[in-house]
Amino acid sequence: MSTKRLYLLILLLIVGCQKAGISAGGPALPANKTEVKAELSKQLKIYESTLLEGKIEQIRIDAATEMLFSEDPLAREILLSALRQSENSAARMAVCKVLIQARPEQKRIQKKGDFIQPLLEILPTKITSEAKLAAEGLLIFEYEQISEPLEKVVTSPKLPVNTRLNAIYALKLQPYKQAVIRLLKLVNDPEKQVAEAAEKALNSLGITVGLDAEIRTVNILQSQNTDEFLRDRLIWLEGQMHKLKGELDLWEERYLSALDEVYSGRKDDVAKAEFLSKHLHNLEVTVRLWALDKVYQDRVSSTPNPQLPATLESILVNLISDPERNVRLKTAKLLALMVELNSAPRLLEQLTIEQYDEVRIELFVALGRACQYAFSANPGVKVLPEVRKQLLEWAEKYLVEQDPIKAQKGADVIKKVLEQGGLAPMEVDKYLGLLQARYKQEKGETDGMLRGELLTAMAGLCAQRSVCRAESSKLFESLFQQALNDETDLVRDAAVNGLIYIDKTKALNILRGFINDSNPIVRKKIIELASEVGSQEDLVWLSGKIGSSAEGESEPAWQAMLEIFKRSDADVLNEWITKFDSPSTKAKLSVEQLISFLEIAEGKAIRENKLNMLKDIREKLAGLYKKTGAFEQAAKYFGILQVDAKNVEERDKVLAELLDAYLRWPNVEAATKLVDNCLLEKDLDPNHAMVLAIDDYLSKPPAGVDPNEVLKALTTINPSRKRPKWLMQVKLWISRLR
After folding, report:
1. Cut 0.70: pTM above it
2. Is the dihedral of CA 148, 154, 155, 158 positive or negative?
3. 479 vs 255, which has greater pLDDT?
4. Residue 306, φ and ψ in degrees, nearest 5
5. Which of 198, 230, 262 represents a domain boundary (last residue)?
6. How does DSSP classify residue 465?
7. Residue 461 and residue 482: Cα distance in Å, rounded?
8. In a domain, 712, yes or no
9. Tens-digit pLDDT profile for residues 67-82
10. HSE (side-chain half, CA atoms, 13 Å) at 369
């Protein structure tokens, strides 16, 4: 039963009870069929009273509707009588509207022809709205049924002009060529107002008049059959509609653009909120939608305006029950973001009565998020436990739906509510069981998207933030393990998440068998898990992903190895130093990656006093830093190595490397001091490693460097002892550079 009909019946019962004088003890049952018939007569009388005296238009229309389709002939007599009551405009128009509504619904009307004359009798009225409704009411008849009386009205010179003009309006509405022909003949009517009205009506139908054009048009129309006429009329009307829609869209676009400019021009946040508040109340749907868009844009921007939610809270919450479906839809989506607003009660109220599926789903989602926010220790928003209870009942309905979107939304809301806590253990077990059952129901389906969404919700309930984590983990763990072999990527992804949430170490033991899963997201998560809890045994398969062609895996795998190296002892790292020296592995690693590994290894060697390993690491680091142009760091390590040199030959070789690093750093002062210290010990001949290093630098200086600056610094060295070989070498450099 429709809401309108139910409302009307309630009203009838109330009025009927009042008129019957029902006692406090309640009504007596009818003794026989005669009494039942009397009750029906009273009901009809109440309909009549409502139609003629009702204060609310919709109730009058509802009463007229009940009588129009009643089997009782007296009901039709009441409607016919109402149409003739010129002093009761409200009742007349209500009956006309019911007749108009009956046409597209194609409902059968008993003795429909009885309404022709009463509708025609309304045309003489001076109340334009009545006459127009009567003209529209005549559309329920074929033109042949009304042509004779209607044309008599429109052509009679004895009738008032106003009556004839109303009849012309009725003719214009008729989708028949005979009506158009009659209008064409009226163009030459002696009464000027009638002729002008006929011409105007024809123009509105796309028919040109003047210069005998109406005669040609009549001939054309008479040569057409009904189907051809209707086809041409339809084509013209569609063209007019398209044209008008284009014009409307253009002006709407201009108006909204102007609103944008005005809104953007308001720099004060309070002023912007007031501007939106005004337009959220606008009667035009387009304007209300524009204002909602602005609130949405502000909410998703990087710097939302804090004034908007506070100022617009009551308006936005009220728009949940806006008469326009698109406004309700957009409001629901917006409130799903603005969870800080106290919207849960109104969302639930509208959800209960909402007629459109699309809107109902968004209301449900918004209510779920509002409850999640309220029950996650947010003192600013309070939601009654009863609201949460009804939300879960809705979630259960959606969860068992065959529609995958509804089922997914239901599962997601159940997750949001359960993870916040506050439910009895039996309730928690109930909804966890519902999720499990719905998931198992989907296991045989080819399309695994819903299966993946359901498993995602189940995995979320196993996360640390979930109050029912222990119960969920116990119930769902085996499902997660089974799902690792599912063909759907989303299912395997959710299964990996679930196992990781339950126990990371245990999860890695299971997931090592899936490191080459076809889903890159799954592979990446296993790599990340190895980074957190992986051990020495994971280094081998991780190293296999270094330099991999799979996008986005090489660097995460290397970072995971570094994290494992940090947790390993020096012996493990020493083994990998050797492995990284092999040509096949070395080619995969960049210099920077090797440096990051060796820095970790250096720390381990120092802490565990692995001196040989430490020396090897520092030699490698010194060479790598020099290779990358990090000469300051290279100098640091060459400085350490020269102290630990075992013999003079090794020491001289390291000192030469140190000198070269100083020169290329550049740190000319340190280079000069190093040479000076060496000259204290002995003279430097042309074949000495340090002389060769200087000679190489001066021969091939770095780009943009003047070697004369270095040579100038070297000439300032004044050996305290005789060093002829060195002095001769300096003279040779000076001569060469000149």
Report:
1. no
2. positive
3. 479
4. -65, -20
5. 230
6. T
7. 18
8. yes
9. 998 888 889 899 999 9
10. 16
